[in-house]
């Protein structure tokens, strides 16, 4: 049985960049434990000599030439931004 | 009779004979939406002004060499990016993305064929869900009975076709999101082989599993829509460079001598007796058509759901990192520092199911757990893929139900994420193996809800999948039934 603590849930939420309320910590701790316990089913299988599948097609690295081409203009790129100034995305200050 | 009860071929004949115009088709679409969409809730955004304008132009320009899709009204799942037409993936975090900057490759391809985009279709937020109850905006209803869910995540795409609001639609399928709603709504839905259709412009959920595919009323029209959207795309590095057949050629051949595999796991305990009965009746039909079937085993089926939720959630946690309130989408109103701005924007913008999967995925990828969960699931994926490869050495297709049950009542499963996940057991292995699968109507429950038959083929063998689906459809009448809605008699 995998056990997940509330502290772990808070840690994962921080890694995932999600603000999380106490009520959500309670609920998620239980729900994640349920799902992870269900996933323990996989340990019935011996997979020591099995290669992992990252991709179903046998593709190797696919490259194309790195050539400049017409794409989105700076103005267009900014038009859906929540905040912008002087042709740039504006975010809250990082430094004091 | 609605104009959308005709086939594509019949519609084109009528257009060229001047019996109808593209404007009539587009008008029919919006009239139907006005009539029934308050009940169905399939659309998130309409493209009415633009579509009507385009219809007029298409009527003027109709030439004898027009494509078979010319002027036909289509609905697009809202996780497919449409230039200048609001695209939200049914998430509050993209609620204000009113002016997307580019078209997905499939949309560019449809523009070449001159389909008319009617609007954007509702779905589970970021395609995470099987009922449409996870939409960030409103819940789609099943046209056959509006107390029931349409399935998901492409619930809007399936319901809009079933309700006659559009002629056909595009959906996306990561773990069954085209096939299961097609099954619940009594329409035809195909998940193509992974890599056949470009994912460029599909808002990513799980990149190694996602595929865009067509939802239609008939198998033949499904093949015509697929034909329009396939092909190698240099903008998608996972796009396959394979020769594309003419899918319509598949319909020239019957199914005599075809070898069907029926996995015993697909008719096991947990499959509703009515569903099982309908599938067995379909197999009998295939026998009459000259095919043979045998019971086989996909021994790793029971591990598919667990492997899928670990893999898809891990990929989702990475893919959804881009929604940060900086470049587009919604930013929190709270005045906070940079890091809390990310966290607050995401907490406010994402719904519960999306958060749950981001958390699961982040956990499975986090230091100390990666090998135990993520890598283990990737290895199990190999075993599941091998199961299919082995079966396909001896058989042409695999057949079973699409879903263990017919549609659920709204609210029936929402509080229990795990049970809902387990219900995707028959569709998920297909995504993990990357093979194509279709759902076609194969009957109705006593309550009058549709049942879907799933036909699974070899990698890039959509032609056989279509041939097998078509043979059944032509021998039966299930696809001709229509739900009763609004002022219908």
TrEMBL record, chain A:
Transmembrane segments: none
Keyword tags: ATP-binding, Ligase, Nucleotide-binding, Protein biosynthesis, Transferase
Biological process, per Gene Ontology: glutaminyl-tRNAGln biosynthesis via transamidation; regulation of translational fidelity; translation
Region described as Disordered: spans on this chain: 75-96
Example GO molecular function: transferase activity
Known catalytic reactions: L-glutamyl-tRNA(Gln) + L-glutamine + ATP + H2O = L-glutaminyl-tRNA(Gln) + L-glutamate + ADP + phosphate + H(+); L-aspartyl-tRNA(Asn) + L-glutamine + ATP + H2O = L-asparaginyl-tRNA(Asn) + L-glutamate + ADP + phosphate + 2 H(+)
The enzyme's E.C. designation: 6.3.5.-
Bias type Basic and acidic residues, positions: 75-88
Subunit structure of this chain's protein: Heterotrimer of A, B and C subunits.
PANTHER family: GLUTAMYL-TRNA(GLN) AMIDOTRANSFERASE SUBUNIT C, MITOCHONDRIAL (PTHR15004:SF0)
Function: Allows the formation of correctly charged Asn-tRNA(Asn) or Gln-tRNA(Gln) through the transamidation of misacylated Asp-tRNA(Asn) or Glu-tRNA(Gln) in organisms which lack either or both of asparaginyl-tRNA or glutaminyl-tRNA synthetases. The reaction takes place in the presence of glutamine and ATP through an activated phospho-Asp-tRNA(Asn) or phospho-Glu-tRNA(Gln).
Family that this chain belongs to: Belongs to the GatC family.
Protein name: Aspartyl/glutamyl-tRNA(Asn/Gln) amidotransferase subunit C
Species this protein is from: Gracilibacillus oryzae
Gene: gatC
UniProtKB/TrEMBL annotation, chain B:
Catalytic residues in the record: 77, 153, 177
SUPFAM superfamilies named among the record's database cross-references: Amidase signature (AS) enzymes
GO molecular function: ATP binding; glutaminyl-tRNA synthase (glutamine-hydrolyzing) activity; transferase activity
Amidase domain span: 24-465
Keyword annotations: ATP-binding, Coiled coil, Ligase, Nucleotide-binding, Protein biosynthesis, Transferase
Stored InterPro entries: Amidase, Amidase_CS, Amidase_dom, AS_sf, GatA
EC number: 6.3.5.7
Segments forming a coiled coil: 8-61
Gene Ontology cellular component annotations, sorted alphabetically: glutamyl-tRNA(Gln) amidotransferase complex
Catalysed reactions listed for this entry: L-glutamyl-tRNA(Gln) + L-glutamine + ATP + H2O = L-glutaminyl-tRNA(Gln) + L-glutamate + ADP + phosphate + H(+)
Biological-process GO terms, alphabetical: translation
Top-level EC class as recorded in UniProt: ligase
NCBIfam families given in the database record: gatA
Membership in a protein family: Belongs to the amidase family. GatA subfamily.
Xref: HAMAP family: GatA
PANTHER family per record: GLUTAMYL-TRNA(GLN) AMIDOTRANSFERASE SUBUNIT A (PTHR11895:SF151), TRANSAMIDASE (PTHR11895)
Role this protein plays: Allows the formation of correctly charged Gln-tRNA(Gln) through the transamidation of misacylated Glu-tRNA(Gln) in organisms which lack glutaminyl-tRNA synthetase. The reaction takes place in the presence of glutamine and ATP through an activated gamma-phospho-Glu-tRNA(Gln).
Protein name: Glutamyl-tRNA(Gln) amidotransferase subunit A
The species this protein was found in: Gracilibacillus oryzae
Encoding gene, per UniProt annotation: gatA
């Amino acid at each position: 049985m995998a056990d997940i603590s509330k502290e772990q849930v808070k840690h994962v939420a921080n890694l995932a960049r999600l603000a999380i309320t106490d009520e959500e910590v309670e609920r998620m701790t239980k729900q994640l434990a349920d799902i992870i316990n269900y996933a323990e089913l996989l340990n019935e299988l011996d997979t020591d000599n099995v290669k992992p599948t990252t991709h179903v097609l046998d593709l190797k690295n696919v490259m194309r030439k790195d050539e400049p081409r017409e794409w989105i203009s700076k103005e267009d790129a900014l038009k859906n931004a929540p905040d912008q100034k002087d042709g740039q995305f504006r975010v809250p200050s990082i430094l004091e | 009779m609605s104009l959308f009860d005709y086939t594509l071929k019949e519609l084109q004949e009528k257009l060229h004979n001047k019996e109808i115009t593209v404007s009539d088709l587009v008008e029919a679409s919006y009239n139907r939406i006005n009539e029934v969409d308050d009940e169905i809730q399939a659309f998130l955004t309409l493209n009415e002004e633009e579509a009507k304008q385009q219809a007029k132009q298409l009527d003027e320009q109709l030439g004898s060499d027009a494509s078979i899709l010319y002027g036909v009204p289509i609905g697009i799942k809202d996780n497919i990016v449409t230039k200048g037409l609001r695209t939200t993936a049914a998430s509050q975090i993209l609620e204000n993305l009113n002016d997307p900057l580019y078209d997905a490759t499939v949309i560019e391809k449809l523009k070449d064929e001159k389909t008319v985009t009617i609007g954007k279709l509702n779905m589970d937020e970021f395609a995470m869900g099987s009922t449409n109850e996870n939409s960030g905006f409103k819940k789609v209803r099943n046209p056959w009975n509006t107390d029931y869910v349409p399935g998901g995540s492409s619930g809007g795409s399936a319901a809009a076709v079933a309700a006659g609001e559009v002629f056909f639609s595009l959906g996306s399928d990561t773990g069954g999101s085209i096939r299961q709603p097609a099954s619940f709504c009594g329409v035809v839905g195909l998940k193509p082989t992974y890599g056949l259709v470009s994912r460029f412009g599909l808002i990513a959920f799980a990149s190694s599993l996602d595929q865009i595919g067509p939802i239609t009323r008939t198998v033949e029209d499904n093949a015509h829509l697929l034909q329009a959207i396939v092909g190698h795309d240099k903008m998608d590095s996972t796009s396959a460079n394979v020769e594309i057949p003419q899918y319509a050629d598949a319909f020239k051949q019957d199914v005599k001598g075809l070898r069907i595999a029926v996995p015993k796991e697909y008719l096991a305990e947990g499959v509703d007796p009515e569903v099982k009965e309908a599938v067995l009746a379909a197999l009998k039909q295939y026998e009459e058509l000259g095919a043979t079937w045998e019971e086989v085993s996909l021994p790793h089926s029971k591990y598919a759901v667990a492997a899928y939720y670990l893999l898809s959630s891990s990929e989702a946690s990475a893919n959804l990192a881009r929604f940060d309130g900086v470049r587009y989408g919604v930013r929190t109103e709270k005045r906070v520092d940079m890091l809390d701005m990310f966290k607050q924007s995401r907490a406010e913008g994402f719904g519960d199911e999306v958060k749950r999967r981001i958390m699961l995925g982040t956990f499975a990828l986090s230091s100390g757990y990666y090998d135990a969960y993520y890598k283990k699931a990737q290895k199990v994926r190999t075993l599941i893929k091998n199961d299919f490869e082995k079966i396909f050495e001896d058989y042409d297709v695999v057949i079973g139900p699409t879903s263990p049950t017919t549609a659920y009542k709204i609210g029936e499963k929402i509080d229990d994420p795990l049970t809902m996940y387990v219900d995707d057991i028959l569709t998920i292995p297909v995504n993990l193996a990357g093979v194509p699968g279709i759902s076609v109507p194969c009957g109705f429950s006593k309550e009058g809800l549709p049942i879907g038959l799933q036909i699974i083929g070899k990698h890039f063998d959509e032609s056989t999948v279509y041939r097998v689906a078509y043979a059944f459809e032509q021998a039966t009448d299930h696809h001709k039934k229509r739900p009763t809605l609004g002022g219908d008699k």
